[in-house]
G2E3 ligase
Amino acid sequence: CFVCGLSGATITCWQLGCNRSFHLPCAMAGECITQYFGLYRGFCWEHRPEQEEVETPEEDTTCLICLDPVEHRPSYGTMVCPACKHAWFHRSCIQGHSMCAGIGCFVCPLCRDRERFQVEMVRMGIRVPARLVRPLWERSHTFPALNERHRRCDARECLCPGGREQAENEGPWQLLLCCSCAAEGTHRRCSSLESTASWECSSC
């Protein structure tokens, strides 16, 4: 094992020509990534997949789960949601969250995106159990709104012909959620945001 130096390492880096091997328990210490889908590939620290470049978070950005500070860029220990690009968290924190949530309820803690978020997390080595039973917080009816993503335009004057509830994947009627609270939204055209990647509501 290139991490601990002991024998019995059964995971070899998938990169052609790389002979680094490691134990599964040593993966995190060696900043390796193991993918728990498809071919179940493993990668050493040098050849592991990385997240796309995103805007650098502000200095006081904290992990949405533990509320401790995160690094100022995506790294092995710091990850970001690929959908909203504003939800930052530690690898260990999002891994713990996924183990509690299971594949049925594992979503971005901020924007509630499921599809792009799950694809990116498993690509980056986050293990998501295929648990079909909903976790306790999903089965509770105390706070049903926590399970829903905001889906309406809150602009003072909504210009969309289909109304405030209509939302498209792109274009003038794409619904942008507040990058800070995700509790308010607006169509791009309703707030003149044709060329803006993110939007923040007046409350934030």
